[in-house]
From TrEMBL:
Annotated CDD domains: MFS_NepI_like
Family: Belongs to the major facilitator superfamily.
Keywords, in A-Z order: Cell membrane, Membrane, Transmembrane, Transmembrane helix, Transport
TM segment ranges: 43-60, 80-98, 110-129, 194-214, 250-270, 282-301, 313-330, 336-354, 375-394, 400-418
Region annotation Disordered: where it falls in the sequence: 13-34
Gene3D superfamilies: MFS general substrate transporter like domains
Name under which the protein is recorded: MFS transporter
Subcellular location per the Swiss-Prot or TrEMBL entry: Cell membrane
Membrane topology: Multi-pass membrane protein
Length: 433
């Protein structure tokens, strides 16, 4: 067993991956799935990269603008944060039904429809007459976007060879980071000159271009087999996944990492507008350039797993995130920026490792397995946004950092439990001759 496989088993406390074993063509000469450098791989990578850009740019389009939204509507951070939590909550609620549609109608079809509806709603967001209307539109936008993440991971699991899967999913996650970064940077500078409504309108226009390019570039699936839309079949698949301790641990890890990330990036704008920083909106938007670090850490997650295994990669991701949280407590711009760099690098590495492990672990119903991960992940984002903002209102930045550190401790504890479960499983498994 390779170090990467050993790490994966240690994280989730189980035997080697069933998905690769269940595919008779995995790694074999007859395997027609895509590999780096092979036909269609670059087009596929670019298409899903652009889908990730559009998804994250739309999903978090109001996050860097929360101080301006608070000022216009006369509300506190905890209330304005619902413009973020509603979008991520809508995605979390609808990702499983959307994944069922992708099992029946195809990954590419569902992703295309989801992006089309999401960008249409995005063009309406700038005209929201009240905070309540804005929250409703953001919830609808999140629900529409739900068809992208789980379908994308299922598409990759079916169309890319197992050994290249971590790298391929890492590139998709890297697109998420670029989308999150570009959306926030653009909105910061546009909002400084023309207000937050113009800023979210620009994000919507960029997302339209990404959606069109995605549909033109993504290769038609060659290994998709339509499934059933019957509720009983879907419920059975979900029950199977939730009864798997491997997947449950990975779902919890994704949720906890996103709790940290959602809390930090929802609140950071408020902190930087206050003394001793008092930064203008455009500069605050530029702070999100640190997402480029996430692009690198996500896209190189496969190499990290190859060196230290998945368990080691998760420990490193957690430690890096915790170090960034502690460093951000200092009341100076440079250490805060360095803290955000470490938080971003740790989060995206941990997310790429956990999400790729879900895709490789699921032996069937990969879209539902990925959907459950995405649901947990975005529930973590909603919790992080609301709890982080509430903690900031009550105790300042130290309260938000405290919430993040508790989530990181949860990641470490789950990884340790998975390691112990793996050792127990190894002792119970007879050694073959």
């Amino acid at each position: 067993m390779s170090p990467a496989d050993t790490g994966a088993s240690a994280v989730v406390g189980a035997a080697p991956h069933a998905s690769a074993a269940s595919d008779p063509t995995a790694g074999g000469a007859a395997d027609s799935r895509m590999t780096p450098g092979g036909p269609g791989y670059r087009r596929m990578s670019l298409a899903l990269f652009l889908a990730g850009v559009a998804t994250f740019a739309l999903l978090y389009s109001t996050q860097a603008l929360l101080p301006l939204i608070s000022a216009e509507y006369g509300v506190a951070a905890s209330e304005a944060s619902w413009t973020v939590a509603a979008a991520t909550g809508g995605l979390a609620l609808f990702v499983l039904p959307m994944s069922a549609l992708s099992e029946r109608f195809g990954r590419r079809t569902v992703m295309t429809a989801s992006l089309a509806v999401a960008v249409a709603v995005g063009l309406l967001v700038p005209f929201a007459p009240s905070l309540g209307a804005l929250v409703v539109l953001r919830a609808l936008q999140g629900a529409a976007l739900a068809g992208v993440p789980a379908s994308a991971q299922a598409y990759l699991a079916e169309e890319v060879r197992p050994r290249a899967l971590v790298t391929a999913i890492g590139l998709f996650v890297a697109g998420n980071s670029v989308g999150g970064m570009s959306g926030r940077v653009m909105t910061g500078w546009v909002a400084q000159e023309w207000g937050w409504r113009a800023a979210v309108g620009v994000v919507g226009a960029v997302a339209v271009l990404c959606a069109v390019a995605f549909r033109m570039l993504l290769p038609a699936p060659r290994h998709f087999t339509p499934g059933s839309l019957r509720p009983r079949v879907l419920a059975g698949t979900v029950r199977d996944h939730l009864s798997n301790p491997l997947l449950r641990r990975l779902y919890a890890i994704g949720a906890l990492f996103m709790t940290v990330f959602g809390g930090v990036y929802t609140v950071i704008g408020y902190r930087l507008t206050e003394a001793p920083f008092s930064l203008p909106q455009g500069v605050i938007g530029s702070i999100f350039l640190v997402y480029l670090v996430g692009t690198v850490s996500a896209s190189t997650a496969g190499r990290l797993v190859g060196r230290v295994g998945r368990r080691g990669a998760l420990y490193l991701a957690g430690a890096t995130t915790a170090a960034g949280l502690l460093l951000s407590l200092l009341d100076s711009v440079v250490p805060v920026l360095l803290g955000l760099v470490l938080i971003t690098a740790g989060f995206f590495a941990g997310h790429a490792v956990a999400s790729s492990a879900v895709s490789r672990t699921a032996a069937h119903g990969r879209a539902q397995a990925s959907a459950l991960y995405q649901s947990a992940y975005y529930i973590g984002s909603s919790v992080g946004s609301t709890v982080g903002a509430t903690a900031f209102h009550a105790q300042g930045w130290s309260g938000t950092v405290g919430v993040g550190l508790l989530a990181v401790l949860g990641v470490v504890a789950i990884t340790v439990l998975g390691s112990r479960a793996a050792r127990v499983a190894q002792r119970r498994t007879p050694v073959s001759a």
